Amino acid sequence: LMLYSFLILTLAAIGTYLYFNFTYSDGNRAGTLIKFSKKGYVFKTYEGEINLGGVNPIPGNTIANNMWVFSVKDDAVAYKLMEMEGKNIRVHYKEKIRNLPWQGETKYFVDQVDEVK
Shortest CA distance to 29 belongs to which of 95, 100, 80? Predict the structure, then answer.
């Protein structure tokens, strides 16, 4: 009975690990880095916001900004982003199905960043 319990717990742990680390999609986004901060109560995570550009469906109306929020796990990438606020950047991200609370607030995780000149 203990062997079966151990086996079930092990399989559940492996399944949970695979579910939360599965990359659903990945790609690039480019825009102006509007905000980047470290936030949270118990788990401090890096969170950012990029303005991808405006959308103006009807001429003569105001432009609606297209904002994209993301999280960062890697400290090196986070420090690089802190220096790029207000600049045009291109980021590579991975989208997860779900995230754990200590990973970040969004399901989009940036792992590379470059300045667009």
Answer: 95
Q: What are 16-64's pLDDT values in tens digits? A: 888 887 878 999 999 999 999 998 888 888 999 998 876 666 666 666 6
Residue by residue, DSSP assigns 41-85 as: SSS-EEEEEEEEEEE-SSTTSPPEEEEEEEEE--HHHHHHHHTTT
**Partners of 108 in the beta sheet?**
95
Q: What is the pTM of this model?
A: 0.77
Close Cβ partners of 31 (under 8 Å, ≥ 6 residues apart): 50, 51, 52, 53, 66, 68, 88, 89
> CA end-to-end span of the chain, whole Å?
63
Give me 25's structure tokens. Answer: 């999609």
